[in-house]
Amino acid sequence: MSTSLIQRFWDVFRREGLRSCWARCMGACGYKRLYLLSRSLHEPLPETRAKIPVHMDWLRPEDEADYEALLTTARDWPLTRRQGAGNRCLTARVDGRLVSVMWACMGKAARIDYLAQDLPLAAHEAYLCGAYTEPAFRGHGIAPAMSVELLRRLREEGITRAIRATWPENTAALRAHAKAGFQPFALMGRVQIGRWGRSFTRPAGPANA
Question: Read out DSSP for 135-197?
C-alpha cells in the first residue's frame, strides 16, 4: 500500500471511524450505498452559530481563484463545481479567507457522483452536497452554521424540502444531521462487477444499515 493511500485511510479513520473506512473499501470493490436523509423546511430551523466570526454569502464569479485554492486542500473529497441551472454554492469566510463551501442542487435531478446516479427532484426540493471545510478550520461549528443558513436561504426562495446523503456507517454525520432535523428515508446504492451493474433504492431501516 502506498504512503498516500495509508495517509488517506488514516485521515478517514480519524474523521469518521473504522466503519466508514470499511464502507470505502467495499465501495472500491464495487458495492456502494448511501442513506438519503430529508428535512421539511416548514419546520423551525435550529439556532446554530459558528464559534468564530464567519461571513457567509453565495459563491460569485470573482471567487474563482479562492475556490480553486480551497480545492487543493480537499485531498480525497469530491470538491467540484456543481454545474446546472439553479444550483447554488454557499461560502464561508474567516477574516476574508474562503474556508468552507456547501452546494444546493435544484432542478429535475441532482447528480450523486459517488453512486454515478441521478436523484430525481421535485420543483420544491433541493439536494445539499459538496460540503467541505478546510481542515485547519474544523471544530469551530462552521459546517452546522452553514447548513442552517443554507436552509434558511432556500426556504426564502420557496424550497420546502431539503435532501442530503451520507454513508450509513458515518454515525457522527448522522447524529449531526439529526440535530439539524434530517432523518433517513431511503437507502440508495449500486453494485458493480465488471461490466455488470445494478442500482437500487429502498426504504431506509435498521436492516439496511
Answer: GGGTTSSHHHHHHHHHHHHHHHTT--EEEEEE-TT-HHHHHHHHHTT-EEEEEEEEEEETTEE
